[in-house]
Amino acid sequence: MSGYIEQIRHVCSLGALQSVLAIERAVPILHSGPGCGQKLWGAIGFQNGCQGSGYAGGHTVPCTNIGEKEVIFGGDERLRGIVQNAFNVLDADLFVILTGCTSDIVGDDVGEVARRFQEKGKPIVYAETGGFKGTNLFGHELVLDAIIDQYLRPAEAKQAGLVNIWSVVPFHDPFWVGTYRAIERLITELGLTPNIIFGPGHGIDALNKVPQAQFNLLVSPWVGLKNVQHLEEKFGTPYLHYPVLPIGPTETAKFLRSVGTYAGLEPKRIEKVIAKHEADYYYFIERSADVLLETRLLPRRFITIADSFYNLGIAKFLINDIGLLPETQYITDGVAEEQQAGITAEFQNFVDGITANVVFTSDGGAVHEAIRATKFRSRPLILGSSWERVLSEQVNGYQLSVTMPASDRLVLDRTYVGYEGALRLVEDIYSIILADFQ
Amino acid sequence: MAINLNNSEAPIRENRLGSVTGYQGSIKDLVNQAASCSLKNKERCFSQASACSSGCAQSYLSRIVDAALVVHAPAGCAADSVYSNTQNKWGEKVRNWQHRNISVITTNMIEEDTVFGAVNKLKETIREAYRRLNPKAIFVTASCVSGIIGEDIQSVLDELQEEIPVPLAPVFCEGFKSKVWASGFDAAFHAILTKIVKPPQKKTNKVNMINFSGSARNQIVETLGRFGLEPVFVAPYSTVEQLSQMSEAVATISICGTLGSYIGNGLEQQFGVPYVKTLQPHGIAGMDSWLRGLGVTVGKEQEVEAYIREQKELIAADLAEIREKLSGYKAVVGMGPSFGHNYIRTLQELGIEVIWGATWHFDPQYDNGEAPASIQNLAAADTDIPLSVGDQQNFELLNLLNRLKPDLYVARHGGSTVWATKLGIPSVMIADEYSAFGYQGLIDFGYRLLDAVTNRSLAKNLSKRIKLPYTAWWLEQDTFTFLEDEVI
Fold first, then answer.
1. Whole-prediction pTM
2. What CATH number does the domain located at A13-150 have?
3. Dmax of chain A from CA atoms?
4. What CATH code would you report for B206-302?
């Protein structure tokens, strides 16, 4: 992941400013160059499902706009002034100082600046997210760890049935709002009480409840594992790590059974939820099966070029539920080497002994070269980003943007997760196929 | 100050032109201060994320059709390539071209690179860019990290130039160096001037048309064709070969004074290609001035006058009608300085009263040593207009708009109009540089504004239901509370 990258599919650690904005009434303060914010929210926000500024994003984000003076003389003083005035000017519940490359190289003592305000009881934390440290998914973990360390306080008592949900990375996943809501609904149907810090209607109250949870539920191939382990160390909260984003009936049922069993729920209750959803799901699939099966346009093979969440989640659905076959799957979110084996193993485990070849790379240019050199025996379905629109024309495929950057889509509350989410994915894929020749 | 092509770097605008990003006053006062060399920049002790030179340089260069761009930086500095790719497709659509992905590759610097340097990685990336993308030139942009750790990009390129047979051009656009992001355009044009443009072999009838996406391409081809001229649209959507021949053109014209200053004056000073330094071609006075400037340069004054007469006759009735419909409306303008000044004039031509102008920076002079024609034109008018300069600081703009409550907010640059809309003010974003282009463009633009004030439901509904992120305290303060003298 440290080599050159053509066609970026993630940004740098500082991109975690968007994770802060995903917490209602939380505001990032950038201690960075003047252009960092605009570039980052442009890529994982505006150009990714058209996710705009919202309450305090975009050009509202406070920033020290580091110039030559701060590079030479240090930027602590400027940061202190900007933070002080941010408290006066902006109406927020939590501020998170995020550093860029410049500050981290120059060696500003940002921790000291933050501590001065913390001592005065101000709701502020800091994270050193210089872009050279890693991806925005890694930065997302840094921000959550900073909040866990510097903001959260131990709970007086645990609340039975309260489950914190950690999953996709806000904004990086253009479907994050819908996805958190879908998981929230499923957990509620099991009879548990979900607690999510991201998205509308949650905010600081949800954040304050995190230490009270009975357990943490991580629905993610790797992102956030560090955080739930941290929460276990700090608050003694156990966690369940479910590595697959559950899309479609097979995986969602498995997910519900895993969570229900972990929470000690009665199997009957879990099965009732599953049965109700499966009946509904198969009503629609039965009704559309004529078109899915009898059209000569049905793609048989699919390629996914996406982050590990969507790569794995979509592969499980399209193979286990819809009957498609995988070409090579390209995972683009800079998965650390030690995490790759676990993810690869999931791709060896589909129905009927089907397996998929997996390549980990952030370099989209190399992926495109490999795909152009592949011999396809039918029109491939390409699930990726808007970078693949050109590729799809070149290899005569069908293309759907499901991952960053999805600049060709407006995404509001759509999600592909769960039962209804899977129906949306089927709608989107086959609408593209039907529209292609009409 | 003359442009010096012997240096590998273009000096930033603050140093070269005395440009500022902090000012509050009026158009006449600003021009007086600039003329008497008493203009001093102001700083802010609160600020919001703005934009940087590398964004401007990269988005501009990455749309040259057969060049590659190597970004020597951590991955995030190439994040703007996503936006540039979308933009590029818009320009391709305008031209009915097949889509391609732009050729941008980043060295993806990581932590150990900041300690040990990444010169080898840069070499490897440039070689791969050449192999993979088969470009006719490779631009290599610097970043804050490469600048601070002192990467010697120039030496790497000199060394690689012996094995790679296409121009390798360094672009010094480190984000921390300038508060004026337009310095990035200068860095890009400096690279083009020093590494791509060749001395003229012959003189042609071509005109360098400096612009962005070029949506009015067909119209300009037709108009210039009447004067026996052929436009070459620079730099996006041109080829490296076309850029290399810019020295052979009969003139250079620009859609934006901010954008065109460095390349226009550079070509004039270095190769004797005259640069038309008039108003920009927005609205009637702008188009008159621009075409006449070109006409004088190429000796086609009569043809130009005939064209102007003809076009004005064509729109006369429509203009009277739209002026009547728009007269009485009050507007605030928020844009880069060239667009800002030119659109203030353009809105006035439509009968709209401009009650405030906010520009993202101000150049007291261009690279020919003279103040921009657009601000001189405004300063010569009877009425003075309040004006402020800030690097798109939304907290000031929101405070200002909340106080002024105009009927319309007209802005360029993303991330500005949405906030005015949240205040309930209908807003128009000028995404296309050819909005209000010339005579018919003015009429079309007028109707666009009329549409914006005719149905205000989105602005009204949104403003009723959302809460602004600013404290009540801030909205009650003087807009320029945080503007203070620069501490050097």
1. 0.97
2. 3.40.50.1980
3. 70
4. 3.40.50.1980
Question: What rounded mean pLDDT belongs to chain A?
Answer: 97
Instruction: Return the CATH fold of A282-436.
Output: Rossmann fold (3.40.50)
The hierarchical CATH code for the domain A162-262 is 3.40.50.1980
Amino acid making up residue B222: E
**Contact yes or no for A40 and B395 at CB 8 A:** no
Answer for the pair B121, B87: CB distance below 8 angstroms, yes or no: no
CA angle B409, B415, B416 (to 5 degrees): 20
The architecture of the domain spanning B327-485 is: 3-Layer(aba) Sandwich (3.40)
Check residue A298 and give its pLDDT.
76
pLDDT of residue B249 exceeding 90, the answer is yes
Note whether A90 contacts B: Cβ–Cβ < 8 A.
Answer: yes
Domain B51-196: homologous superfamily in CATH: Nitrogenase molybdenum iron protein domain (3.40.50.1980)
- Tens of pLDDT along A165-176? 999 999 999 999
| A162-262 matches A13-150 in CATH topology | yes
A296: pLDDT confidence band, cut at 50, 70 and 90? low
Domain spans, chain A: 13-150, 162-262, 282-436
Q: What is the DSSP string of B258-277?
A: HHHHHHHHHHHHHH---B--
Burial class (CB in 10 A: 0-12, 13-18, 19+), B22: buried
Give the count of Cβ contacts less than 8 A between chain A and B: 245
Whether the CB of A81 is below 8 Å from some CB of chain B: the reply is yes
Within 30-59 of A, beta carbons closer than 8 Å to B belong to 30, 32-40, 42-44, 46-48, 52-53, 55-56, 58-59
* Chain A contact present for B76, CB below 8 A: yes
| Whole-angstrom Cα Rg for chain B | 23
Query: What is the tens place of the pLDDT at every residue in A52-75?
Result: 999 999 999 999 999 999 999 999
Span(s) in chain B for CATH 3.40.50.1980: 51-196, 206-302, 327-485
Query: Model ipTM?
Result: 0.97
**CA-CA-CA-CA dihedral for A70, A71, A73, A79, to nearest 10:** 30
